[in-house]
Write a structure and sequence with these properties.
Organism: Mola mola (Ocean sunfish)
Strand content: 5-15%
Membrane topology: Multi-pass membrane protein
Helix content: 55-70%
Shape: globular
Structural class: mainly alpha
Family: Belongs to the PGAP2 family.
GO biological process, one term: GPI anchor biosynthetic process
Number of helices: 9
Largest sheet: 2 strands, antiparallel
Number of domains: 1
GO cellular component, one term: Golgi membrane
Number of strands: 2
Length: 254
């Protein structure tokens, strides 16, 4: 509960107060619902176009790049990613402050904290790039955005798991134990799916076997879903926090 009169010049004036758990759920639901909607529309209305490959063999699922490159899927995905990007940058800053508080005076962990922030920002920026530059428009930019997204995502997960491994003996509540365990599980699952997707993508391009690209698309979905789930662990990390939008107190009093 906030104490003191709303108009007190000695404290910020809250305009919006949102529990962080609701904030985290809403942030993750935006890309999740957008991706599901794009996949559904592609399969129902653009099946032949979205599942077409240069090998011209049987394929039953579109890749994510294909699913978000047509109309109206393109605009649905861009809207969802655009809306979720600002909260993602805010969460990156929140984690940075959280780690700095936990590792004050410990240089190796503080360096990892800074690197985690850079990776988080790069991951979100790469996602924005591959979202707003589709594979059918400028393939090279879309491809580079995808590479930045995947590489920074995996590195961010790895660093995060390392930082939580260091603070495992200093948990303040059971939710942090749950958070660490799920972070590690999701990271291992994510990297396994990345390897599987890379294998099936390469195999498809080399041998043009029927159904192989479908397996690539399936594991690509799992990579993205597990990435979303990893970021969702902030639900436990900041479960007792609130997100405020407030006006600053006046510098001068009249």
């Amino acid at each position: 509960m906030l104490q003191g009169p709303y108009g007190s010049p000695d404290r910020d004036r809250p305009l919006i107060r949102l529990p962080f758990r609701s904030f985290a759920v809403g942030t993750v639901l935006l890309p999740l619902s957008g991706l599901i909607a794009c996949l559904f529309i592609s399969l129902v209305y653009h099946f032949d176009d979205s599942t077409y490959t240069h090998c011209q063999v049987s394929n039953y699922l579109p890749s994510i790049s294909s699913a978000i490159s047509r109309v109206p899927e393109r605009y649905i995905w861009r809207c969802c990613i655009g809306l979720h990007s600002a909260p993602r940058y805010l969460v990156a800053a929140a984690y940075f402050n959280f780690y700095c508080g936990r590792f004050a005076g410990r240089l190796p962990e503080l360096l990892l904290t800074a690197l985690a922030l850079i990776c988080s920002v790069a991951e979100n920026t790469g996602l924005l790039l591959l979202t707003y530059v589709s594979s059918t428009e400028t393939y090279s930019l879309h491809k580079n955005g995808f590479i930045v997204f995947i590489a920074s995502s995996l590195l961010h997960m790895l660093i995060t798991c390392r930082l939580w491994h260091v603070i495992r003996t200093h948990y303040v509540n059971p939710e942090e134990i749950t958070s660490r365990r799920w972070k590690l599980r999701l990271f291992l699952f994510n990297i396994s799916c990345c390897l599987a997707a890379a294998y099936f993508f390469r195999r498809h391009n080399m041998f043009c076997e029927a159904g192989v690209y479908t397996l690539f698309a399936l594991f690509e979905y799992l990579v993205v879903f597990s990435n979303m789930a990893f970021h969702m662990t902030a639900f436990w990390d900041f479960g007792n926090k609130d997100v405020f939008v407030a006006t600053s107190p006046e510098d001068k009093r009249y």
